[in-house]
Structures are given as C-alpha cells and as structure tokens.
Specification:
InterPro entries: DYW_dom, E_motif, PPR_At4g14850-like_plant, PPR_rpt, TPR-like_helical_dom_sf. This protein is 63% helix and 4% strand. The protein has 638 residues and is mostly helical. Strands 2-1-3-4-5-6 form a six-stranded mixed sheet, with helices on one face. The structure holds one DNA strand of 10 nucleotides.
DNA sequence: GTAGGGTTAG
C-alpha cells in the first residue's frame, strides 16, 4: 500500500476503503470506486457516503454518477438524500431545481428516512431558484411539521424563498417574527451576540430581496436600520446598484464602506469594479487593485477579469495588459475582456493576436469573445477580416449570431462605406433589429453623407424610440452639414412639439480621487472663472496656429460667431481646461464623456495635445481616443 | 448546511 491514496491507517473503519478525498482527477476517482465495488467495500455506508460526497462536490460535480451511486445504496440515509438534493439545488442548469424538489418529495414519502435541518435549506433554495411559491409553501408546512421552524439556517432560507418568489409581505412577516424570537430570553451576552450574528443573515436576505425587486429605497432604508452589518450587507447593495446601472450610488456606497469599520472583501471588489469601470474612475480603480494586493485578496481569474476591464475602461490599456499577463489562470471571460479592451483602444491587431493566443492556450472562445474580435475589426476598418471572422463563427464554430454580432457587422460595413450591404444585413437578419443597430447605420450615413438613407433610417428610429433624441439630433446634424437649414428648422420644430430634448453632453475628470462633472456650457463649478479664462486662452492659442472651428456639426442655425462659442463649451473641453489648470505640466489628462466626441472637439484635442504637450485620453461612449503630439490613436477613423 | 461576484454591438 505505497500509493499516495492509501494513506489512512487501517485501524479506523473508514480507512478500509481508500481515501477518496485524495483523488486528484475524476478518472482516478472512478478507478478507486471500481475497486471498492469489486471488493464489496462499497456496502460500507461510510464508504458509499464518501463516494457520493465526492461526485457531488461543486468542482467535480457529476449528478448522473451520483444518482447511480445513490440508487445502488442498500439503505440510503438522510445524509445520502441530502447530498443529492443539495447537488441538484445548487446546480444552475434548467430543470435541476425541479429535480431537487421531486427528489425531496420522494424522500418525504420514504418511510425509512426523515428530512432534517440540513435537508430544508437546499430544498428551499431549489424553490427560490425556480420561483416556485406553491411548492415553497408546502415545504414551509413540512418545516413546521418537523419542528425545524426555529433553525436559523432553515428560517433564513424560508425568508429567502419568499423573497425570491417576490412575496415580500410574507418574507417580511417571517423576518420580523424570527427577529423577535431570537431576541427573547437572552440572558447571556455571548449567546445574544451569536443570535445577532444569526440575525444579520436574515437582514441581508431581506435587503437583497428589495434590491432584486428594484426597490432600492426600501432596500436602503432597511440597510440603514440594521443593528449590525457584515461585508455581505454592503456587498448586496453595492452589487445591486452596479448591476442596475446605478454606478454613482455603487461608488458612493463603496466610499462609505471604506470609511466604516467593515472591511471590503473579495466580493466587494468584484462588485464595485464594474461601477468604477463605467465611471472611468482610474484613481479609485487603482486603489482597489492596491487594496487587494495589500490585504492578500487573491487576484484570480474572476477578480482579474474585473481589474483588466477596469484598467481598459479607465483608459490604461497597458496596465490592463500587465494585470492580464500576471494572472495565474485565464478563462474565456478573462480573454474576452482583454480582447474587448484592446478593441476599444483601437488596437485591432493586438486584439486579433490575443485571440490567436487564446485559441492556442486551449481556452474555447465564447460568443462574447467574437463580439470583441468583430468590434476590433470594426474600429480599425478591417472589413475583410471582420467578414471572415463572422462567417467562421457561424459556419465553423456554429454560434448563432446575436444582435451584438450583427451590430458589429453593420458598424463595420457601414463605416467602411458599404451602406447598402449594411442595410441589407439588418433587413435580412433573423433577429428583430433594435434601435442600437439602426443607430449604427444612421451613424454610418452621417459619416458618408448619405442623407437619403439617413432620413429613412431616422424615420424608422423615430417610430421605434419616439422619445430618444439621438435620431433627431443625427438627422438635424446631417441636414446642417449639407447646409439645408430649412430642414434643420423642421426637425427642431418637431423636437419642440414632441418635447424632445437633446441629451446633455457630460464629461468627467478625476483629480486627486475626486470626480468633477461638467455639462455643456457648464459654469457651475466653484472654479468656473478660472476655467473660463483657460478656455479663452485655449481658443486663442488654437486661432494663433490657424485653427478654424468646424461649425458644420452644430445643431442650431446660428451665425458663425455664435456657433463658434457653442462649440467652445462642449463638456470635454471644459473638463480638459480644468485638468490643465489643476495638474502640473506633462501630466496626462483622462476624461470620460457620455456621448460621442464631436468632430470639432476631436480636431481641437489633437492640437491641444500638441500645444500644451499633454497626453489627453478621452473615452467617449464608444471607444478611446489617445491624443498625443497632435495625433489621435483612432487615426481619425471612429 | 445560510447572504454577495467578472466579459457582451453604438
């Protein structure tokens, strides 16, 4: 018995069978199992339990195998039943939660076993996952019948079941009742503390419920009234905000947590990073990275992906690459993130190189990976490459293209000037086109000055999303650039009649960890006066080197002088002016803008980067522009 | 045996 798996001393009964937990691979495990069957050791209930436990473990879960082992047991005990139910309930596959429930009801009918306090959490989880209120309530009845309605694990899962089924009233009732019961008759402080800790799970489940329902007010109110909070309490809100687009709230919550006495943990960082990314708050993102390193929080593929995404979206693609390279494990999401990041920065060739590296490393690209690849081709105008990746994905790989893939293709073809082909693709694709895809085509019409198609597309859009200002603005701009001021006036009148306002342009710049927000023509900042004189100085400098603003893209039909000043105060210019005032020479400036950068701002930024010898990195709603020495990384193709 | 997590067309 020299083999490493026969390590348990033979005196102990469980050591009569090899130590399953030492199996490194499924193959190894199956060999050991076969050996146990051959030697009849499998009839030892403990041995069988060990086998069952192994194939139900989250990492090597094989439910079919586990079921077979279970079915061959002479007398499965409560533990055996629980193992199968838990494995089924925890699996996210369709139908598995239902299977868990059916299996549980079978268990209840079986006279030889009785469900215990370990059975119900899994069963309730299965009800919660599949939103089966009716079954959940039946299970609740059984909980009471078996006298388990004061077990804290059972209770929190009961509350969670009601929460997930959207019955907050019942959840709340159960929550309140159990809080009171926990507090009754507490004489020993230690005991009380333990119960408070039990309570915090209940509170968290409730806050999570309101977050899931999108009732952030109620969630926040409950959170604020919690007697004590754990990291999970904070994480529920931070991730809830971030996943629902409330990035500002997520970041504010995170900042508040930083100041309190509960330390952010792994999940906190993973949850807050997407919000930091969307906001482009590089300084905060760096803090998170450093925090993980200092506090021994493992940067695995999940946290790593979030960090890579943060660095790319905050403009620091080099840092993103650095984090990526250092990751010990990279999965499809990690690769998709870096490929998408490179695409966003216009580094199409690098993106495609990474795609080949991904394939060589043995990680299978997902459909999301192809979105990054196609978007790289589209940002760099690689029409043929894009076409061939698309058909490869469909024909060789067999992925059904999603609207995002078609979106990339429409953008790729349209921007390269193949407007008809792009339009045909939209009309012939098997998915219903959405506003985003039409907007991509509209943008292409604008670039190539195809007013006829532009009008047609804009009409589709006005029908589809009547209150979205985008199509009106694009149409108006198209007329304006062709000098058709009458048509511009018509569009403007239509907008006025329908009370449609142009989305205000908005830019952010983060200085010393503080985010400064500027709107178009914004003069509300405390240092507005200085900003204005800086803007004037910039305008003068630009004029001195012979720059004449491109006024053709302004929405209004103003006289030349007025138009020039309307351009001058686009939010990104204000943010850059502010950045120039507040930072020392040569410091790069990072600005994030909610809309696309306009042509005039784009030309001005190139010159500003030259005049002031600054690297200016602007993230618009679609991609990055790195301005340096008078040039932009997008090579004026965007 | 409880609560919280990363990528996705413009």
């Amino acid at each position: 018995m020299n083999s490493t798996i026969y390590t348990t001393p033979p005196s102990h009964p469980s050591s009569l069978f090899p130590n399953i937990t030492l199996c490194k691979t499924i193959k190894h495990f199956k060999q050991v199992h076969a050996h146990m069957i051959k030697t009849a050791q499998i009839h030892d209930p403990l041995a069988a339990a060990e086998v069952l436990r192994f194939c139900a473990l989250p990492n090597n879960r094989d439910i079919h195998y586990a079921r077979k082992v279970f079915d061959q047991m002479r007398q499965p005990n409560c533990f055996s039943w629980n193992t199968i139910i838990r494995a089924l309930a925890e699996s996210n596959d369709d139908g598995k939660p239902l299977a868990a429930l059916l299996f549980f009801f079978q268990m209840v009918c079986d006279a030889s076993v009785e469900p215990n306090q370990f059975t119900f959490p899994s069963v309730l989880k299965a009800c919660a996952q599949s939103s089966r209120l009716k079954e959940g309530m039946q299970v609740h009845g059984l909980v009471v019948k078996y006298g388990l309605d004061s077990d804290e694990f059972v209770v929190s899962n009961l509350v969670r079941m009601y929460v997930m089924c959207g019955v907050m009233k019942d959840a709340h009732l159960l929550f309140i009742r159990n809080l009171i019961e926990f507090d009754e008759g507490d004489e020993v402080v230690r005991n009380h503390k333990k119960k408070e800790e039990g309570n915090v799970v209940l509170w968290n489940v409730m806050v999570d419920g309101y977050v899931r329902l999108g009732e952030f007010g109620a969630a926040r109110e409950l959170f604020d009234s919690m007697p004590q909070r754990t990291a999970v309490s904070w994480n529920v809100l931070i991730s809830g905000y971030a996943q629902n687009g409330l990035f500002k709230e997520a970041i504010e919550m995170f900042r508040e947590m930083q100041m309190g006495d509960v330390c952010p943990n792994y999940v906190t960082l993973v949850s807050v990073l997407p919000a930091i990314s969307r906001f482009g708050a590089l300084e905060l993102g760096k803090w998170v990275h450093l925090y993980a390193e200092k506090n021994g929080i493992e940067i695995d593929d999940v946290l790593g992906s979030a960090l890579v995404d943060m660095y790319s979206k905050c403009g620091s693609i080099e840092k993103a690459l650095q984090v990526f390279e250092r990751l010990p494990r990279k999965n499809a999401i990690t690769w998709s993130t870096i490929i998408g990041g490179l695409a966003m920065h216009g580094r199409a060739n690098d993106a495609l190189d990474y795609f080949s590296m991904m394939e060589r490393s043995g990680v299978t690209p997902s459909d999301v990976t192809y979105i990054g690849v196609l978007s790289a081709c589209s940002h760099a105008g690689l029409v043929d490459k894009g076409r061939s990746f698309f058909s490869h994905m469909v024909k060789a790989v067999g992925f059904e293209p999603r609207i995002e893939h078609y979106g990339c293709m429409v953008d790729l073809l349209g921007r390269a000037g193949h407007l008809e082909e792009a339009e045909e693709l939209i009309l012939n694709m098997p998915i219903k086109p959405d506003d985003v895809i039409w907007k991509a085509l509209l943008g292409a019409c604008k670039i190539h000055g195809n007013i006829e198609m532009g009008r047609r597309v804009a009409e589709v859009l006005m029908d589809m999303v009547p209150h979205d200002s985008g199509s009106y603005v694009a149409l108006s701009n198209m007329y304006a650039s062709s000098g058709n001021w009458e048509a511009v006036a018509d569009v403007r009148l239509m907008m006025k009649e329908m009370d449609i306002r142009k989305d205000p342009g908005c830019s952010w710049i983060e200085l010393d960890g503080e985010i400064h927000e500027f709107l178009v023509d914004d003069d509300s900042h405390s240092r507005a006066k200085e900003i204005h004189s800086m803007l004037d100085e910039i305008a003068n400098q630009l004029r001195l080197i012979g720059y004449r603003p491109d006024t053709s893209k302004v929405l209004l039909n103003l006289d030349e002088e007025e138009k020039e000043s309307a351009l001058q105060y686009h939010s990104e210019k204000i943010a850059v002016a502010f950045g120039l005032i507040c930072t020392s020479p040569h410091t790069p400036l990072w600005v994030v803008k909610n809309l696309r950068i306009c042509e005039d701002c784009h030309s001005s930024m190139k010159l500003i980067s030259k005049i002031y010898k600054r690297k200016i990195i602007i993230r618009d709603r679609k991609r990055f522009h790195h301005f340096e020495h008078g040039f932009c990384s997008c090579k004026d193709y965007w």
